[in-house]
Design goal:
The protein has helices at residues 10-14, 31-45, 59-62, 71-79, 93-102, 126-141, 164-172, 183-193, 203-212, 234-239, 257-266, 280-285, 292-300, 314-324, 348-359, 371-387, and strands at 49-54, 67-69, 86-90, 108-110, 152-159, 176-178, 194-200, 220-223, 242-245, 271-274, 288-289, 307-311, 329-332. It is α/β, with parallel strands linked by helices. It binds iron/sulfur cluster.
């Protein structure tokens, strides 16, 4: 096999942070005590601190965020706060890495629990990508070598849900980062610069976005990093306009078209909106698809009394129902709700620990992207920010 499953995740290979367990004294505190101590630590740190919270974060943590948003929106907040010495990112590892790359030298980015990773991001390993890249070039150019004046034949595009090492790989090879908010604009940019796109790690976001842009399914190919030459023939690679890495989100792939049929049967007239990390047939069964920010916008701008079924992580769905759009009825497509268990690892206990550490002059769980990856990761992220 050319692409063996990695023993270490891309994060563990690249990240310079040392894992520190939560001290015992932060376990078993009452909610009231944690709330009061977090608020006190925030007040003591003042403008030296900015807390960013992803939409999927649990309620008892996100209530302390200064800014909430999806990965794209939060990445903009980093540059808007050059005064903040500490950026505490209540999200998952790849988000904190991007924040570190976009931050200034005097800023430190902290992830309250280093175990908060992303299973999708772990599906793209830098060594597998290197192998795939070389094999793709060999398959594409075996019969027609690249001419010096031709466009680059493959542009690598990585979803922001990937390790810094993957982003750096793409940046160095003329590629770019995208988010679910700007995936279509990024693909349009990539096709303007090359003939084909290698899209990773989420095959579903790539497929759903390209299809919505008019690319038929038979002009897409799926590259399996654990199979010889991705499990594809040279002809299949040559025919494809987009080559999709075989990765997925374990949360969003739990939604099914059958669940949508059921929810429509139970609530006639309901509008169904899903995140584009869901499988293609689920997007086809829904009324519309878009990023978390898009979902929030659509639901909150709908007339009071509207009824929505939403296909994304359960914390955002519940927050839409209870706080953001209370005059609408909002429910999950999955009757049991889909939880991002790694995002859930960031607890108020971890937040309290890192904040009180900062008050005492100790930095726990700092995320530092290695210098050799930082430059090209920033190139790829800056390209993304300039496209949108
Ligand atoms: S919801 Fe999916 S893609 Fe997002 S952080 Fe969780 S596992 Fe990763």
């Amino acid at each position: 096999m050319s692409g063996a499953i990695p023993l270490l995740t891309a994060y563990e290979k690249g990240c310079l942070a040392e894992r520190q367990p939560l001290p015992d004294r932060y376990i078993g505190l009452s909610d009231e005590e944690m709330d009061a101590r977090i608020a006190a630590a925030k007040a003591a740190l003042g403008r030296r601190l900015v807390i960013l919270g992803h939409h999927y974060q649990r309620d008892d943590v996100i209530k302390f965020a200064d800014y909430t948003g999806d990965s794209y929106k939060l990445s903009h907040q980093v540059a808007k706060h050059p005064d903040a010495e500490f950026i505490v990112f209540c999200g998952v590892h790849f988000m904190a890495e991007s924040a570190d790359v976009l931050s200034a030298d005097h800023q430190q980015v902290i992830l309250p629990d280093l175990a908060a990773g992303c299973s999708m991001a772990d599906m793209a390993d830098p060594e597998q990508l290197e192998i795939a890249w070389n094999e793709l070039q060999a398959m594409l150019h075996a019969e027609s070598p690249v001419r010096a004046d031709s466009k680059a034949s493959v542009i690598p595009v990585t979803y922001i849900n990937s390790a810094a090492s993957i982003k750096a790989f793409c940046g160095e090879r003329g590629g770019v980062v995208c988010t679910s908010s700007n995936a279509a604009a990024t693909l349009a940019w990539a096709w303007a610069h090359g003939e084909k796109v290698l899209f990773l790690p989420d095959q579903h976001l790539g497929r759903n976005t390209a299809y919505a842009m008019g690319v038929p399914l038979d002009e897409m190919a799926v590259w399996d990093p654990n199979d010889v030459r991705g499990g594809l023939t040279a002809d299949e690679v040559r025919r494809a306009r987009i080559i999709l890495w075989k990765g997925h989100c374990s949360v969003h792939t739990r939604f099914t078209a059958r669940q949508i049929q059921q929810v429509r049967a139970q609530h006639p007239g309901i509008r169904v909106i899903v995140h584009p990390e869901v499988p293609w047939d689920v997007v086809q069964a829904a009324d519309e698809a878009g990023s978390t920010e898009y979902i929030i916008r659509q639901v909150t701008s709908s007339p009071p009394g509207s009824v929505w079924a939403v296909g994304t992580e359960i914390h955002l769905v519940n927050r839409l129902a209870d706080e953001v759009a209370p005059e609408r009825t909002v429910l999950s497509i999955d009757p049991f709700g889909c939880l991002c268990s790694t995002m859930f690892r960031v607890s108020p206990n971890h937040l309290l620990w890192v904040l009180e550490g900062l008050v005492d002059g100790e930095v726990h769980n700092r995320i530092v992207v290695p210098p050799d990856q930082k430059h090209w990761t920033k190139v790829a992220l800056d390209r993304m920010l300039s496209i949108s």
